[in-house]
Amino acid sequence: MAHSSFPYYTLGTIVRGLGRGGKELGCPTANFDENAVAKLPSSIYQGVYYGWAKLLIPDDNQVYKMVTSVGTNPFYNGEKKTMETHILHKFTKDFYGETVKIVLLGEIRKMTTFNSAKEYDLYLLIYSDPKDLCHAN
């Protein structure tokens, strides 16, 4: 779906989330601080987006493919708007307190809810490109 908001560039500090993405869904995310979330345009909401991410840390000049979720996490009955980025790369450590810069290039789908994590996994297997699954290397 085309939005006049794309490409959308932003950056924010990585903060500790509730730990569900990595532990329950096997898809760790970098959770953006509230200031970054507050700056999002209203057209970027309740959706899953694709683009590129760069961690602003020493000795890492890589730009990584990523998927970002923006919304209230209806699967968990969330009420607070969040922005969480899954970087398609396996890291050996956490980056809490570091800055991540992203560019959203487009929307993959609208936010939806699932009855269980298993149903979510099945959805990914049916509708996702295998290269873009959270478990991709």
Taking pLDDT < 50 over at least 5 consecutive residues as the criterion, the unreliable ranges are 133-137
Sheet with most strands: strand arrangement: 1-2-5-4-3-6
Number of strands: 6
User: Could you give the distance between the termini?
Assistant: 27 Å
Secondary structure: helix percent? 10-25%
- CATH domain fold name: Elongation Factor Tu (Ef-tu), domain 3
Morphology call: globular
Main sheet characteristics: 6 strands, antiparallel, barrel
Describe the protein's architecture and organization.
It is a single chain. This protein is an alpha+beta fold. It is built from three helices and six strands; from the N terminus they run E-H-E-H-E-E-E-E-H. The chain has a six-stranded antiparallel beta barrel with strand order 1-2-5-4-3-6. It starts with 7 loop residues before the first strand and ends in a 10-residue tail after the last helix. The C terminus is likely disordered.
Keywords:
3 helices, Elongation Factor Tu (Ef-tu), domain 3, globular, 137 residues, alpha+beta, 6 strands, 34% strand, disordered C terminus
Q: In brief, what are we looking at here?
A:
With 137 residues, the protein is an alpha+beta fold.
